[in-house]
Specification:
Number of domains: 1
Helix content: 25-40%
Distance between the termini: 17 Å
Number of strands: 4
Radius of gyration: 12 Å
Number of helices: 3
Largest sheet: 4 strands, mixed
Oligomer: single chain
């Protein structure tokens, strides 16, 4: 995740959370909408107080594997496992 800055803003939404994530590298940025259900939060060993940390760690994981432009613009956090099975074993 070299040289990428994240800005994460989460709000409660339908039994879970919706997080708006901006990824900037100093020259350009991308915006993403990530949903996190209560079940996903528990599955990944987090709680509402560590929600932003979970989303941040998830983006660090993704950015270690692909450029910000390749990250889906809208997805559920568990969708990451569809593309990177090792995400669920972290």
């Amino acid at each position: 995740m070299a040289d990428a800055d994240l800005h994460i803003d989460c709000r409660a939404d339908d039994g879970g959370w919706l997080c708006h994530v901006t990824v900037s590298d100093g020259t350009s940025f991308t915006e993403h909408e990530v949903s996190v259900s209560q079940a996903e939060l528990l599955r990944y060993g987090a709680d509402s107080t560590s929600l932003v940390a979970l989303v941040s760690e998830s983006f660090a994981f993704l950015l270690d594997r692909e450029p910000k432009e390749s990250i889906l613009r809208k997805f559920a956090i568990s969708d990451i496992e569809t593309y990177f099975a090792e995400f669920g074993r972290r």
